[in-house]
From TrEMBL:
GO MF entry, a single one: aldehyde dehydrogenase (NAD+) activity
Lineage of origin: Bacteria, Bacillati, Actinomycetota, Actinomycetes, Kitasatosporales
A Pfam family per the record: Aldedh
Record keywords, A-Z: Oxidoreductase
Full protein name: aldehyde dehydrogenase (NAD(+))
Amino acid sequence: MTTAPVEYDKLFIGGRWTAPSGSEVVEIVSPVTEQIVGRVPQAGPEDVDRAVSAARAAFDHGPWPRLPMAERMAVVARIRELLAARHQELAELVSLQNGSPMLFSVRGQALSAVGAFGAALAAAEGFEQEEERTGTGGPVLVRREPVGVVAAVTPWNVPQLTIAAKLAPALLTGCTVVLKPAAETPLDANWLAELCAEAGLPEGVLSVVTGGRETGAALVAHPGIDKIAFTGSVAAGKAVMAAAAEQLTRVSLELGGKSAAILLDDADLTRALPAIVAGTCAANSGQACVALTRVLVHSSRYEAVAAALGQAFAGLRVGDPADPRTVVGPMVSRAQQQRNLDWIEIGKKEGATVLTGGGVPEGRTTGWYVAPTLLGDVTNDMRVAREEIFGPVVCLIRYETDDEAVAIANDSAYGLSGAVFSAAPERAARLARRIRTGTISVNGFRLDLAAPFGGFKSSGIGREFGPEGLSAYVEYQTVNLPQPEAPATS
């Protein structure tokens, strides 16, 4: 893995590298070594203005929104091809910034972004820009127009996947984009900007403004923005929505989760438990909004599941993300590490039992590590069961009946993901339909890039991926066509 510092002294504005308006920089610190691994400029309000102006000019006067869909698809396909060819380089760059284990980073960071571009291209194949219908008063033409200038604000945990989820549909529908990556992971965003230019994306269509919260706040409040596409915390999402309200800016939000995995009394544990491990601690070291952080177990099987899952968590290899055997890497920052440790202590004070983990792994004096932790004897009214922890900390909760399991799963402010396990798939599917969540898996755990993804309740507004993901970047225009003339009578 590359360890030399990666430094940018310019901002990618409208397709060109330009000097920032100020001298402040953002330092990227390795979660493994705690050393600086990169620096980027802190984009100020003037830089945001320049980026939005470039995007506005490209949208209002440039060729991109006016190209046939097939021509835009060709450029996006080229971006996907370059991503696929250089996915190992991308995986290493993401891991350098956020500590994602390479075991996850290759598939979950880099190849997932490739897949998201591919799935968006597939959805665009049947995405009609115009459709003639028979209206109540005559023929109508329904047109899909690109929404305009998009502010894409993305998080640090899966930066390239969340960028792809916004950039691919925005570009395909003819929008222009100003991308604001997280302060912890700006290097891969700049890397992608260079790749997009190489793929032939016209000037002005993409800008990247790097920086912290101030940069993001200036972008989402900018009057030149037509749509905000945001992924992040609920608190930040509320702030984005409030800023959007001032301008009536269109907004889509993909926020947090506290998802439930329900083990029915007949579940095959040899199949269910590996899926739960994959959906919790092994999912980017637990730093995933879709993580199955509440495991609901029928009381008759509670002890067996507690023992088996605790043993599985204890056996996960924690260490250097560059080691291909590592399953759990560090938290992204010291603050995130401390947040996890604090939540474990809160859980213990509430009456939860630490079945495995519960602190910093032995011997890890450098790097921001948290041991995979399973909390037993959790009830759904405890804070650890209700609030998003965002790390390798999982709650084990008993239930007695299927109805109670559904009630517990739905008793949450969130509704993003989930899973149901049963020896009878049809039984699991029936129960899955009763869970108020945006995505739920039967006898497994996955995110399908061809299907709509998003949340109920506080987990967000709108959907990404699939045809629904493309629809989020268009406005609908209705053209009332004239009635056909009646044939002349003799």
